[in-house]
């Protein structure tokens, strides 16, 4: 495959695995300016592992500092590393059992420095943990497939999205973009993006399910396309959804990508809304992805 097809390969990797899947040249992978962002976005296991590693390393460093002062800790065995290490743990955590305490000016200076660093460290870790817990997240479901079927006698691209939480997403907005390969008149290969016009682009309250529809009329980028042409052009449908979470009053967002193979022709989604014998409505998410012929 030639160089002119490289943008498509990059787009495929971005769509399937995210930006981290692309190798970047000329840009540093990590800078200290991104430290906060990295600590907030890494997994909880990695975060707790880094905190534990930093905690052990810091107490080990101060333990050696106490050992360097000779017999400077009362009731500690001189030159015995475990005693110095656990005295450092008690000092950093401000536990103060009273069994061991500094006995020289040198030890008091080290204790003062360690207590200050301990207060700063606890504050920073607490702030980072709160920031991680308070990050707004969305539990938005997208159907595994999209369908093309008549709606009001117009061929229409449709897919489902649903709010998996029991609260509301206020002022929800959805944007659907078609991405495909094109060659300019000059023979330049490019990956073109087209915004798709929707029957409804926003909803004031997103509570249960939302069927997003794009009419394929003569103004649609999908007009005249077939299943084979979509695959040949490497078509993808990129969906982004934003809204305000009712519980935390913060903006949340979610996204999904449908490939050409995910688009089913002349099919429609099965009805997932039902009513109990006494008239109460209920929704069957187990059939959220099910389709049938019109």
Automatic annotation (TrEMBL):
GO biological process: potassium ion import across plasma membrane; regulation of monoatomic ion transmembrane transport
Entry-linked Pfam families: Ion_trans_2, IRK_C
Domain Inward rectifier potassium channel C-terminal: 140-292
GO molecular function: inward rectifier potassium channel activity
A GO cellular-component term linked to this record: plasma membrane
Location of the protein in the cell: Membrane
Transmembrane segments: 44-68, 80-100, 106-131
Keyword ATP-binding on entry: no
Domain spans labelled Potassium channel: 57-129
This protein's UniProt keywords: Ion channel, Ion transport, Membrane, Potassium, Potassium transport, Transmembrane, Transmembrane helix, Transport, Voltage-gated channel
Membrane topology summary: Multi-pass membrane protein
The name this protein goes by in its record: Ion transport 2 domain protein
Organism placement in taxonomy: Bacteria, Bacillati, Cyanobacteriota, Cyanophyceae, Gomontiellales
């Amino acid at each position: 495959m030639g160089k002119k097809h490289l943008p498509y390969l990059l787009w495929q990797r971005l769509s399937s695995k995210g930006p981290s899947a692309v190798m970047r040249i000329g840009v540093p992978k990590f800078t200290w300016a991104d430290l906060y962002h990295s600590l907030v976005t890494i997994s909880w296991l990695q975060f707790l592992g880094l905190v534990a590693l930093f905690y052990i390393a810091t107490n080990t460093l101060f333990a050696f500092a106490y050992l360097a002062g000779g017999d400077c800790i009362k009731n500690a065995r001189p030159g015995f590393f475990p005693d110095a290490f656990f005295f450092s743990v008690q000092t950093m955590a401000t536990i103060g059992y009273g069994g061991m305490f500094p006995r020289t000016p040198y030890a008091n200076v080290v204790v003062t420095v360690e207590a200050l660093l301990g207060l700063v460290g606890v504050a920073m870790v607490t702030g980072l943990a709160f920031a991680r817990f308070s990050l707004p997240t969305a539990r938005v479901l997208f159907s595994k497939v999209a369908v093309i079927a008549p709606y009001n006698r117009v061929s229409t691209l449709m897919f489902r999205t649903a709010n998996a939480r029991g609260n509301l997403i206020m002022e929800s907005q959805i944007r659907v973009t078609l991405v495909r390969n094109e060659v300019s008149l000059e023979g330049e290969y490019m990956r073109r993006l087209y915004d798709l016009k929707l029957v409804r682009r926003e909803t004031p309250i997103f509570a249960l399910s939302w069927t997003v529809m794009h009419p394929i009329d003569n103004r649609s980028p999908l007009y005249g396309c077939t299943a084979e042409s979509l695959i040949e052009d490497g078509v993808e449908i990129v969906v982004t959804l934003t809204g305000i979470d009712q519980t935390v009053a913060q903006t949340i967002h979610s996204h999904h990508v449908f490939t050409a193979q995910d688009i089913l022709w002349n099919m429609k989604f099965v009805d997932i809304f039902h009513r109990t014998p006494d008239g109460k409505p209920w929704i069957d998410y187990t059939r959220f992805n099910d389709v049938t012929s019109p």
